[in-house]
Amino acid sequence: MSIGIGLIGTGWIGEQHVHRLADKVAGAQVVAVADIDPESAGKVAASVGARVIDTAERLIADPEVEAVVVTSWGPAHAEQVLACIAAGKPVFCEKPLITEIADGLRILKAEQAAGRRLVQVGFMRRYDAGYRQMKRVLDAGEIGEPLMAHCVHRNPNVREAYTTEMAAKDTAVHEVDAMRWLLGEEFTSVQTILPRKTAKRFPHLQDPQIFLFETASGARVDVEAFVNCQYGYDIQCEIVGEEGAVRLPDPAAPAVRKAAKASVEVLQEFGDRFADAFDVELQEWVDRLLGGQEPSGPSSWDGFAATVVVDAAVRSLHSGEIVPIELPERPEFYA
Amino acid sequence: MSIGIGLIGTGWIGEQHVHRLADKVAGAQVVAVADIDPESAGKVAASVGARVIDTAERLIADPEVEAVVVTSWGPAHAEQVLACIAAGKPVFCEKPLITEIADGLRILKAEQAAGRRLVQVGFMRRYDAGYRQMKRVLDAGEIGEPLMAHCVHRNPNVREAYTTEMAAKDTAVHEVDAMRWLLGEEFTSVQTILPRKTAKRFPHLQDPQIFLFETASGARVDVEAFVNCQYGYDIQCEIVGEEGAVRLPDPAAPAVRKAAKASVEVLQEFGDRFADAFDVELQEWVDRLLGGQEPSGPSSWDGFAATVVVDAAVRSLHSGEIVPIELPERPEFYA
Amino acid sequence: MSIGIGLIGTGWIGEQHVHRLADKVAGAQVVAVADIDPESAGKVAASVGARVIDTAERLIADPEVEAVVVTSWGPAHAEQVLACIAAGKPVFCEKPLITEIADGLRILKAEQAAGRRLVQVGFMRRYDAGYRQMKRVLDAGEIGEPLMAHCVHRNPNVREAYTTEMAAKDTAVHEVDAMRWLLGEEFTSVQTILPRKTAKRFPHLQDPQIFLFETASGARVDVEAFVNCQYGYDIQCEIVGEEGAVRLPDPAAPAVRKAAKASVEVLQEFGDRFADAFDVELQEWVDRLLGGQEPSGPSSWDGFAATVVVDAAVRSLHSGEIVPIELPERPEFYA
Amino acid sequence: MSIGIGLIGTGWIGEQHVHRLADKVAGAQVVAVADIDPESAGKVAASVGARVIDTAERLIADPEVEAVVVTSWGPAHAEQVLACIAAGKPVFCEKPLITEIADGLRILKAEQAAGRRLVQVGFMRRYDAGYRQMKRVLDAGEIGEPLMAHCVHRNPNVREAYTTEMAAKDTAVHEVDAMRWLLGEEFTSVQTILPRKTAKRFPHLQDPQIFLFETASGARVDVEAFVNCQYGYDIQCEIVGEEGAVRLPDPAAPAVRKAAKASVEVLQEFGDRFADAFDVELQEWVDRLLGGQEPSGPSSWDGFAATVVVDAAVRSLHSGEIVPIELPERPEFYA
């Protein structure tokens, strides 16, 4: 038994997902791909024996396509997701779900009107083994009520096109979702702090940045985003509760003792760091669909809330002020 | 595209593999199962929509069965593997491949006569991420020529049916295979050492035991097998070379600071410790078959050699002497 | 050869220092003690064969007293230190050097007038092996220019007399000194952030608190002070530079694997955590004096600057605003 | 109050101890030194203001010398220790106490005749914080009855004069003492195992070696001695009991993340690894003497037993056989 999947957008992550679905995910069959670049679409389609469909609209409408994966560029996501909802087809949308708040409201409304959850957003950290273990520790009450979280998100470097705003929108957004999920509450304010800039990268870029969030319960979450740290892709997280603290493990790696050092390798690519998380994410999505169930992963609401939060962080970046995060009340539908 | 698999033996590991193949391995379809207990076979078959076939022989012969997984009890493995070879069907056989040396010689002969590798043996550690990272470190020459390996294999406890001989045959056999693979050479002698027995378990059982192996190059491998260590399932390994040392990582787990301790959980089950390894093992086996390739995992030779080694360890257990390991020359076929 | 030391204030830390000087520090002899409580002074004096002198003034003036250790209560420090300077005697003063900024200016002026460094302030972390190793890493340029520091200061709990202002004045002041020393620059602003309070302790107390400092170069230092964390006395610190990051080690402790956990003990007392640092601090102070050298440890300037910084943190606590830190220019004398 | 110490033998360790006693140990005063090389004695004496005495005998007899430290070359130890016993003066003797078994018996007899413990042997590991923590864990019963110990003793390299026999006599002897102390029982047999030799060092030397000891209770202790491991001075130890296991901590060191590695430094010198242990060892010895107590450290019996054990290890090295360790019954005096 397998489900026919159509994928829109055959860029880097799209191609990764196509091969993941074809080679690693049980019960998935990529039946069609679409891309604004027909050559890219053709190459990727050929590699897994799928058809090329010339537009996203036609792909969504195609009868063989039972579920859709959206990996196009961000600004196109909202319309494609809305088209999937209109077609009544489950859609897995890479982050960001939306680039405009108004689009988020339309998606929330449409999905509620459809009467069932059709949308899952690609926040893969919820599927990382380490984060899941932290979640179990928290949910078991082992560290008591959470009071603070300290997060670090470092990349070895970024390409020149990376802008100062992307530290919130592309980078810290992962911590925003992970912390909302782990803490089980919404963020209410944000302050963006600008440390001394690294001289190791493009002058246009303010890097690193620190985001200081407050949550509805008053817990504080700080996130260091440092995307030209040189040494590796490094994700750290400690949550401090009333009775204890829990820390995200580093990836397991053999310790080598040599030349006066005991060392472990630090990964360089987020794709390596979260390879298993991506696999599990899509496998669980497919498993839910095959089981006739609604998706259980990050929802439209989560995608919407994350964008509201990072938009506020960008406003704080520009104003230097603490910026309140104004989120409408969460609909019961997304409880 | 998928391959039709028949599985023989629906005990614990068989049932695990059926669900692994059905739910996690892309490109595999369990089409048939057989077991000496028809009820067990029926239940497992029903859970994945496979047929029950009443005997191993008929299952192997079934035209829908393109490849076979053998998870029956150990003494039955050799005949079932030989039947697969005779039928020209690829077979994945759980360890042990053989319980009698003579059977191993028959399998090696039959497979060579068949002219291509048909057999893979279920030494799953070669698919564990940590061991694979160690292998890369060794093969890159990072620690120079290996001189010693220190291994630890601990279980929290074993059932009463576990016998003193099983420390070599069922427990240390995993280290035997892993070290043969990591070091790339054969073992030439073994000495079994009997420390003071733990009082925490059955009086009939000599536990722990230490196995001291020598390899063809003179490297020394010591393996502590302690199957009632109480605290957890714990696999440790350090390889020491002329220029450095490398250590198998513990599984990644979040550190919790609480009540005057900083602690990480120690797993209790080998099935949890090597869950990913089992998945990768079967996925890679299926991928090779789908790609029309011979299996690349542990071969008949590896299964045969491991049994020769642990048989010698058992002789040393009884004699108290250093026992030479007499292995015929490895056929070119298995180079 | 040994130096005669008089100690003022035989409370907890005073008694500790008396025994440290008597039993562990080579070249020191405690010749006299004074305390406002004659009984306490008498008991401590008797334990090491020292004389009791009835007032601090007379102790400082006593001809046998070649150097003074001030461990009286904080508000008395400034006058006692000034008296030592007036007497031309080296003085080791426990933190805080001052409780009023004006006193600091008087001490700086008096010491400069004396023409040589007479004062050392008891910021013992500069003598902790881990911090010293970090300092070597930083000074060797291994991580490049520092951009951020993340500090954590946790106590298992505090007594009821501990006030909200003490989080800055008594607790984070240690990080203030350690970071000024490690980074080699002054702090220029501070923001005190008040997370959700722990319910595990006195309602009057805002605990935890986060202090966010900026330095002259624009580096950012965040300090979590959480003095009722329940689980232990836990000091963490990571400094992030342009090319790498360095982290303060936890105290070495044997890992115990037992009952499904691998755990190390977390210390409960700052006295245990920094026992060696206290010893080294006083030994090096005595060694300098015996060698006829000025003290090389934290200076009057360091004691003054730390108080200016934590005073600003308290103002931020009350105002909720970012508070600039206005420090006069550092005299050449303290370069 | 201080004790006048005379030191015999101003080689490397002697000079270290002189400065340790002069600069770091409270209550000790080096009053005299002797060495067969008068120039060496003169230089060391001058550095701490001690007298040179021309022979060991005269130094021991000198009325200012209240206690003796023996750091001469090994074969001279026994006579000098015997002379101290005859003079009724406490003596701290660096290892080895003896190089001939017969000398050990004479020392044991003489000390018992003297009626009180006068001799302490310089096995400094008993004063290392990590080993002491392990001892507390063991003595508290946390891991239950010990069944096995796995020890590793690695040096980066040794000079050409180091012989194959020294792996037991000079290197593994530290583990012999540490394990006798930790386990609280004697060793009963030893087997020396010769792995493939490293090619990184002198051809005359069999390096590494593994020593496999049995204790009176049947526990097994394996010791890897690898003195040209290239990468550092590395001491590891795990003790495995019926209910858990405990591992000696590595020295605390800051982790540096840089250039795709997270690394900590590995020390290169045993003098650095055990610097604190040496300090504590002499401080506690001096404290006992100042307190009018017999020494509490490793006794003549411990020094004797260690030599008996490593002599047997050397015999096993030559014979290739398991060699029984024949130790007379321990006199009550040393209980």
UniProtKB/TrEMBL annotation, chains A, B, C, D:
It catalyses: myo-inositol + NAD(+) = scyllo-inosose + NADH + H(+). Residues 131-246 form the GFO/IDH/MocA-like oxidoreductase domain. Its EC number is 1.1.1.18. It comes from the Bacteria. GO terms for molecular function: inositol 2-dehydrogenase (NAD+) activity; nucleotide binding. InterPro entries: Gfo-Idh-MocA_inositol_DH, Gfo/Idh/MocA-like_OxRdtase_N, GFO_IDH_MocA-like_dom, MI/DCI_dehydrogenase, NAD(P)-bd_dom_sf. The keyword NAD applies. Keywords: NAD, Oxidoreductase. Residues 4-123 form the Gfo/Idh/MocA-like oxidoreductase N-terminal domain. GO terms for biological process: inositol catabolic process. It is an enzyme of class 1 (oxidoreductase). Homotetramer. Involved in the oxidation of myo-inositol (MI) to 2-keto-myo-inositol (2KMI or 2-inosose). PANTHER family: INOSITOL 2-DEHYDROGENASE (PTHR43593:SF1), PTHR43593. Belongs to the Gfo/Idh/MocA family. This is Inositol 2-dehydrogenase. The lineage of its organism: Bacteria, Bacillati, Actinomycetota, Actinomycetes, Glycomycetales.
